[in-house]
Amino acid sequence: MTTAAAGSPRTYQVRTYGCQMNVHDSERISGLLEQAGYVRAAEADEQPDVVVFNTCAVRENADNRLYGNLGHLRPVKDKHPGMQIAVGGCLAQKDRGDIVRKAPWVDVVFGTHNIGSLPVLLERARHNTAAEVEILESLDVFPSTLPTRRESTYAGWVSISVGCNNTCTFCIVPSLRGKEKDRRPGDILSEVRALVDEGVLEVTLLGQNVNSYGVEFGDRYAFGKLLRACGDIEGLERVRFTSPHPKDFTDDVIAAMAETPNVCHSLHMPLQSGSDDVLRAMRRSYRSEKYLGIIEKVRAAMPDAAITTDIIVGFPGETDADFEKTLDVVREARFSSAFTFQYSKRPGTPAATMDGQLPKQVVQERYERLIATVEEITWAENRKLVGETVEVLVAVGEGRKDERTGRLSGRARDGRLVHFDAGSLAGQIRPGDIVHTTVTYAAPHHLNADGEPLSHRRTRAGDAAEAGRSPRTPGVLLGLPTIGAPAAAPAPTGGCAAR
């Protein structure tokens, strides 16, 4: 049965598309629903009581993917009265009421600024037997004040800001996430400490542009100070951050990375293009020389730093010469990996109406050349680590072939993926534990360590994984009504307003 039996809690499932922001937002959605009395559906359950789509609007096929999935759910819902479907995230913020018009079986549509309203909207839709659409134009509650159900026992996202003040011509995010809003440093550090108290070893500071953190309260050096403050938190072993913008990257951040022991020597810094003309058309306010200069400073301070990037191929007006300049920067930068994208036209962005839109076959050919160049470099860089000892934080789900190969997987301090043989420690190593091992083989996208591990340290994160616990941060609902355990339909007379 999809509908919950009388007196039993309703089940939910969250389906996430898109970036790290969406992944973390989904943790908040889960936390909100569980605080309201819902329970997560078992993975094998194809008919949960509530399905929430947390959507992305960045890629060209995002709309088709959502409406295709909604179409597949329609007959399931028809057979199970009481089932509810909710759509949130960036695509919901963009399409708003169009979602219910195109898919009238959807019960709730909510935006990026009002995640905290979801339990209320679900309850209201059940009570009124009508779709609820609520899209706010600005943030009502900072998302990190919301309860959060963390997916990992050993690593956690911590938002330091939401929104973006940049105006890149290819990006729709600022119009959907709004202007940048910064959290106060004390609130951020309190959340980090709460996660560490739960056993978390690694924290990733998250923002659309972490380098501009502090702009709202007038401290352009706030991000470097925040990194250093994280170094004072006992039990926090790894600190990462994503994503910085080259235009705001300051030397004090490099110094903080180099001088704070628990800040990892890994840097993800989007390039997008190596052509100054294309960067200008993208409205990216840096040039290739500045970008490479930042990398030079990072490597001077941290010779072992692993640098990753984002690159877009086929932006409107990109010439063969422009593309060759991108390849030149890739060769000089020596990235340890790169997320590569074919330019995708998004309605509502300036780039969508620019002259010089390129044929698909031209973009595809350049994309394939870029991939080949990137992999040649990443493989060469990874081969330099053969014979080196790496510290691995053991992970879940990083190695898709682990079951077949008998290996475990995790991330080195520099962010590289490592598949390793547990040797005589097989059965003793848990997700969240720390292993030191020696690299024996390198591939373009990962390292293998097939010898006996040099050491194994059991951690509180590993204890939590073994016990099946995941960290939860309670948050503060700041005036939103508490729903309690949802009853089976029909809802009690009076609805949520009476609670």
Q: Can you describe what's shown?
A:
- The protein is of the alpha/beta class and 499 residues long.
- Helices cover 33% and strands 19% of the residues.
- The chain contains 15 helices and 23 strands.
- The strands form 6 sheets. A 7-stranded mixed beta sheet has the order 20-21-18-17-16-19-22.
- β17 and β18 form a beta hairpin.
- α12 runs parallel beside α13.
- It is globular, with a radius of gyration of 23 Å.
- The C terminus is likely disordered.
Structure summary, number of beta strands: 23
The biggest sheet amounts to: 7 strands, mixed
- Rounded to an integer, what's the Rg over CA atoms? 23 Å
Q: State the strand order across the main sheet.
A: 20-21-18-17-16-19-22
Mean pLDDT: 86
* Terminal CA distance: 28 Å
Indicate the overall shape: globular
Strand content: 15-25%
* Share in helix: 25-40%
| Broad structural category | alpha/beta
Note poorly predicted spans.
475-499
SS field, number of helical segments: 15
